[in-house]
Amino acid sequence: MSTPETPEEKPSDGQEPESTETEGQDSSPERLTWMQDTLEWGVKARPGKHGLTMRDINVGIYGDVPEESRDMSRKPRGAFPVPGVPRTDLYTLNHKVELWADNAVDLYEEAIQRRWMAHIDIPWETLGESIGDILEPLPEEVELATRQFCTELAQQASIETDVIGQWLHHMNYAYHEVKTFLATELFDSGRHYSAFRQRALANGGRLGLESPGHINRRILESRSGWTETALYLYILRGTLTLLLYRYGEAYAHYPAEKQLFRSCMQDKARHMAYGMAHLKYAVDEKGPDYALGLRRLMGGVERDLASEMKDPVLWEALAIYIAGSVDHIAEGMAEVKNLQRRYMEEYLTRMKWIGVDKTADNLDQDLAVYLGQRESSPA
Asked: Would you say residue 8 has pLDDT above 50?
């Protein structure tokens, strides 16, 4: 005869028997399997003398830069791909040759280490304190010329900001070294825009006239590719901008101006370093036919540049800035002519360095005239 179940042994209606496993424990074999999904284990980046830089973490497959990438997601290079994730963009710059420069990774580090803030690092309180032994306030026409000079430079910086901004999202994330560097350049140009407006509006100031805009439009409306746009942005425009910064620093009237131009010059030299390296890389990789195409491309652009350089506003303002008075504008204009000559010489030199056969013989005739101008200059 069977023994009746005790109340403790009889299961309650509608209740499951107690589990023998510990409550809350997940015995599923799929638990945390994502931890195993990686393209490479065992990678260890080690800090260098400048800390843990972008170059330091380019180890293993994470440092492999592909010649082409068709990945249309925004995942970091080397991340494990998840099947079925829809693309988030349609990049148009998917080949290394279209944007690469070996120095971009180091230029990025330099940019973030040498960043400066115009409202703090420029001694604006020194406006009105002349450099050297001249203690008299500057003539009003010199202040007006300085404002015009700064207005033109602010406009150049704003164009650079817009140009880089409209190309960044076309660049594939496989080339993040270039994208991150160009992000710093975009920020630099925004800072230059703000700083030159600050100088123009400080000291009882105002903004001057806008530039003719021929080259601005060329750069902004360039659609041939990033390399072609870089040719305009760095060699055509950047060469002049860097020279203007140098002359601005050399002939500065106030400590604030000297520091402003010196800081901007440091940034612009870094921008030019990327631009030149990329253009040379692209020409070396694509060969002489591509170089010839770039030379021919510049033909029409040079005509626009020749027309823009005939506009007197920038040059007259710069001549007064250099001379320190309207009475000595002829002396200042002699230095301006020297700057124009140096601009054409450096333009030809940079074109030759990247592998484009641009010479005085095939330079636009109206621009070639500037090569004959020569005056002494301490800048």
From this structure: no
